Structures are given as C-alpha cells and as structure tokens.
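HUMAN: Would you supply a protein with fold tokens?

ASSISTANT:
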Amino acid sequence: MKVSFYVVVGGFALLTGCQTLDNHEVTKPEAKTVATENTVPQYYLASPAESAQITDVWERIRQGMQLPIPDQKLVNQYRDWYIKNPKHLEIISERAAPYMYMIVEELEKRHLPIEIALLPIIESAFDPSASSASAASGLWQFTTPMANHFGLEMNWWYDGRRDVPASTVAALDMLEYLYEKTNNNWLYAFAAYNSGESRVLNAIKRNEEKGLETDFWSLNLPKETERYVPQLLALAEVIKHADEYGISLAPIVNSPTIEVVDIDSQIDLAMAAGLANMTPLELQKLNPGYNRWATSPLGPHTLVLPIDKSEEFKKALAETESEARISWLRYTIKPGDSIGVIAKNHHTTIAAIRAANGMKNNTIVAGRHLIIPVSADDKQLYAISTSQKLPKKTRALATGPQLTYKVQSGDTLWEIAHQHKVSVKQLTAWNHLSKDSKLHAGQQLTIIAPQTQVAAEQIRTVSYKVKSGDSIARIASKFNVTIAELLEWNSLTPSQYIQPGQVLKLVVDESKLSA
C-alpha cells in the first residue's frame, strides 16, 4: 500500500503516494530465502511488570526495540539527518504525547514490534489531520479503499481515517495482514505498507528466478519504498540512542492520558465540550474524525476525552437526555424548496432530515413543517464543520502580511515552512527555489503569512458548565470577556443568579485566555 509520508528536505525528495492492497495471489518466497537479519520473533516484548515500572513511554519503546539496524547507506543518511536536525523530533514528540501510550499498549497487546509506533512520524508527523496529494489521510495515512477494506467508516459526518484510536486498530490489522502475506518478514511488511504486497512479492519472485538474494536490500522496489524502510530503521536507531545523539524528546507519561467514551447517541460537539468543561477547539483536536458540528446520527457514538475530564463528562452526560443532546429547528417548507437545498442550508444531510421526520422518500410539501437537527451554538454553530474550514491546500493560499525570514545554521525548507504554517511548495515558489535547494546561514526568505487561517482559529464559541461557587464576574474574568457580553450572549440580566450545572455560551479569543 502506497502512502504519503514525510522525508527530509535537502538531500532527499518529499515522497507522497496512495495506499494499495493487492488481493491477487503471488507465490510466496520459501523460508530459506528470507534473510535472518530481517526476521524478528513475533513474541518478544517486555512483560507488563517491567513496563509498569517505566515512567516515560519513550523509554518503554527503547526497551522493547528488537529490529536489527543494518549498516546500510540510506539508513546511515537518514540517521545523520535526524541527528543534524534535532528540532524535527522534538516537535513531533510533543505532538505524539496524547496518542503514543495508546499505540504502544495496542502493539504490546498484539505482540507486534514496538518500532511500529514510530511509523506515524514518517507517515504524518503525528498530525491526525494530515492529508496528502494522493488523498491519503490521518495519522496512518489511509486512502479511501484501504480505509473501507479495514473497517474504517467514512461519511458526511465522520472520517475514521482521522479518528486516532479507530485508525490505529485498522493500521495494525493491516500490518498483521501484510506480515502474514510476506512470509512473516517485517521489512517486507513495512515495504508492503508503503507500496502494496504485490510489488514486494513480485520483486522477491523476480530475484528468485534470477538466482539473486531476496532480502529487502536486494529487491528492486519503487524508490520511495526503498527509502521508506531505511527511514523507519534510522528513526528507531535515533530514538533508541536519543540522549547520545543530543535529541530531546518530550517525556510522555507511561499511563493513559485519553479515554474513548461511549456516548450511545448523536451529540452536538459544542454541548459535549461544555459537559466536559473543555472548549470546542480542545475537543475537536482530540476528535478530528468528526467533520461537522455533531457526531454522526448513525455512529460511531464515541468521543476521545482527556482522562481527567472523562468522569465529569460521563456524569454530566448521564443527566442529559438523548433528545436534548441535539438542538432541533422547526422549519416551514417554502414553495420551490427541495430537501437537498434545505439540508445544505442547515449544514446537515438529507438522511438526517428524513430520519428526524420519519420520511420514506424526499417528497416535501410547501406550508408543512420539518424538524431539522442543528447546532446549539447559534451564529457560531458551524465553527468546527469541515465546510467552514479552509482545507489544508487552500489555507496556505490565504494571504497575510509578508515576512522576511533570515536562515539560521541547520535550517531546512521543511522546518521553515512548518514553523510558519505554509507548504514547502509555497516557500520555494515565493523565493524561486527548488525543493532540493540548499540553504545557507544568513540567506533571506520571503514568507506570506496565512493570516486568514490564524484569525479563524482564534475565535471560538465555548460552552461552559457553571460550577459551585462560580459567579458571572468570575467566569467573565476567566475567559477574558466583559460581564455585559456574557449577559448578552446568554440573555441574562444583572440581577439573575446562575446555578451549578447551568451551561453558558461565550465567544472567546483563545489566544487571550488566561492560563
């Protein structure tokens, strides 16, 4: 399967692709043709007792590593690049914090190589919302066919490729499948994850017919696949000896930090955020699989929550009737209306409207009424809907102030682009460079800041659940808004009291929130 992944800039090309799963049978290589250096015992991981004594997940990963690191040119080149660019892994290690414990737990439960936990670094730089030009998406960069094949749901409301727990299960299912299909050889399996098992098995077969060696390093594979596996091995080597190489990885506590909570019905995400005492943006960051303002009517009915918020959320949810978890609008059908137009105008689907009204077809009659599910957040109701977000390719086109950046020693195009939230393609176009151009200290680069995106991501509507001891003044101060604004947003008067459990709406600039 061919997937998009990040590689180094300066010396290596940025490689992208799409996943392919081959269903036709290809003759497997005989066991004797598999080099022992490429084969790792299936059951080798540390015991739970040993893992429990480790406080940092990175150390847990180091102790579990077993894949041999060969002295190969590309492995050494990638290792040297990581060492020379320590910021790359420092940033990614912070981004991995919410998910790495969960991934490692799943790997150990299945007795799979712990090094697989590093694949999302290559695939998506641990960004669950990452997408590629070849339409691969999510932490593990699934394409639509592969997502469907391994059980990930995708619809108007939800994209399982961006659901980290769900896509992790699917990715490990796929890797187990590929491991078995490639004669229990993990290097073959990783190569197949990138380009499909048919290419790998056919390459092995060609070498066998020619009397050549059939270990991974002897195979004639697509260039990106030939680089993909060495990059993973180099990454494992660097992570294992991070201290020696001067690389600082953000510590990840060796205990659960997130929980998948079953909510049993559709829910408005702004309301869910309020019940969990979170902002909608905080909730959305942990649940990037949801495309709209609510979870899907048909499921999955789950939310990923911080472990320290889950119990409070579950108690509040239990006190909220299923019918109250979504707001409903009574709409009078107008002449010329169609159910499709009504659904589009209210940011919902035809299926959702039909289900809410018990309709057997799309026929509607002017003058009659429809019940339409809508967000409870009024004017800001669609703030986290996909249709209201600038897609990643479009975001970079949003123009803002022009900046001049002075290149520092060790800088790469990828790092500079990532730091300023633009693409390498834009950065090279603005400065008349190629993606392989070498930078030198003191060189000045022009960057057009994506101002529109920044502005859109700062202003959010927050649902806040009143706690015992809260007051209007205290809540206003906490969210850096005025008392008058808070009263207006919630149709309150200065003399009205607020009660514990009451949910208030606030429109806040998150960049100005007090810690």
